[in-house]
Structures are given as C-alpha cells and as structure tokens.
C-alpha cells in the first residue's frame, strides 16, 4: 500500500537530491496524513540518504507527523491573538490530559494533537479546532470538559465521527 502510493511521488522527482527531501516529505504527508516508517525508508532509498538522517531533518520541522492522526484531530492555534489570550496554557492542559505532546497520537488512537498557525478565527481566541469544529474562548478549565464530550461521543458511537 505504502509502496504503491509513494512511487508516483518519487517518480515526480527522478534525479532528486538532498534539496528535494522536504518537498517530497510534504507530498508524502499530504497523501498519507503522516510519515510512516516505510515511507521514510523508501524516500531514503530514493535520495540515497539513511533513514536516521531523514528523521533528523524532519523532526526539525514542526509540520511533520510520524503517527497517523487520531479519530479526533485537535488543532491548537498559536497565532498571535490566541497566544496573547493564553493558548500556551491550553496546549499544556491538553498535553497533560492526553499524555501526549503536539505531533503525537494517543495510544488508543482517539486523539491526535497539532499546533497550528492562525486558523482565521481570532475573534474567538483562544480557539482550538477538533475535526474542524471550533471551540471558542477555551480555558484550561474547559479543556477537560471539551475532551470528555469527544470521549463520550466515541463511546456512544464505536465508529466515531472522524472527519
Ligand atoms: S490567532 Fe488564533 S485564530 Fe487567529
């Protein structure tokens, strides 16, 4: 599956060198949603770079994920308006509750977490988006309540409501 999907991307970069690494990884992630180990190894073969080198470069950039997204994908805005209104504390509360860092997915696959730039709803700051649903004026106190509402949703509907 991975090899099947990734080859057209690599074929678009036939004589790719190290400069092509980031664009290729971006395309792979856009197609797969994350960078699987298999994909990293295959990109490494194509560019003649060891996987360890690719991980080293990719982890430097916040944009890359190494795990599939959870059923509920949380985006915490760290744009200026949200930052001023306390988004760092909100992010911290979410990380503590889910026991994951930004860029990771919970073990049960229910939640994944991402920090994003302004999502265009500054009037609602601080704002988080979960599967595209905006939550306005989020406080550290509200975090647990919001997460619980999604946990409840998942337990009521085993299949969830993934976007
Ligand atoms: S700064 Fe957060 S929505 Fe614009």
What's the gist of this structure?
By secondary structure, the chain is α+β, with helices and mostly antiparallel strands. Helix content is 46%, strand content 11%. It has a four-stranded mixed β-sheet with strand order 2-1-3-4, with helices on one face.
Overview of this protein structure:
This protein is of the alpha+beta class and 163 residues long. The protein has seven helices and four strands; from the N terminus they run H-H-H-H-E-H-H-E-E-E-H. The longest helix is centred in the C-terminal third of the chain and has 17 residues. The structure holds FE2/S2 (inorganic) cluster. FE2/S2 (inorganic) cluster binds next to helix 5. The site of FE2/S2 (inorganic) cluster (FES) has 12 residues, from helix 5.
The number of distinct helices, counting runs of at least 4 residues, comes to 7
CATH class of the largest domain: Alpha Beta
CATH T-level topology of the largest domain: Glutaredoxin
Number of strands: 4
- Strand content range: 5-15%
Q: What's the CATH H-level superfamily name of the largest domain?
A: Glutaredoxin
């Amino acid at each position: 599956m991975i090899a099947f999907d990734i080859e057209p991307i690599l074929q678009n970069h036939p004589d790719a060198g190290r400069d092509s690494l980031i664009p290729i990884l971006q395309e792979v992630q856009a197609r797969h949603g994350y960078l699987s180990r298999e994909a990293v190894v295959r990109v490494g073969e194509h560019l003649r770079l060891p996987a360890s080198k690719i991980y080293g470069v990719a982890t430097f950039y916040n944009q890359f994920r190494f795990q599939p997204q959870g059923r509920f994908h949380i985006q915490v805005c760290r744009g200026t308006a949200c930052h001023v209104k306390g988004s760092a504390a909100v992010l911290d509360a979410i990380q503590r509750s889910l026991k994951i860092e930004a860029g990771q997915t919970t073990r049960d696959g229910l939640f994944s977490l991402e920090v994003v730039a302004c999502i265009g709803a500054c009037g609602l700051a601080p704002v988080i988006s979960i599967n595209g649903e905006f939550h306005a004026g989020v406080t550290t106190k509200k975090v647990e309540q919001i997460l619980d509402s999604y946990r409840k949703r998942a337990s009521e509907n085993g299949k969830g409501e993934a976007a």
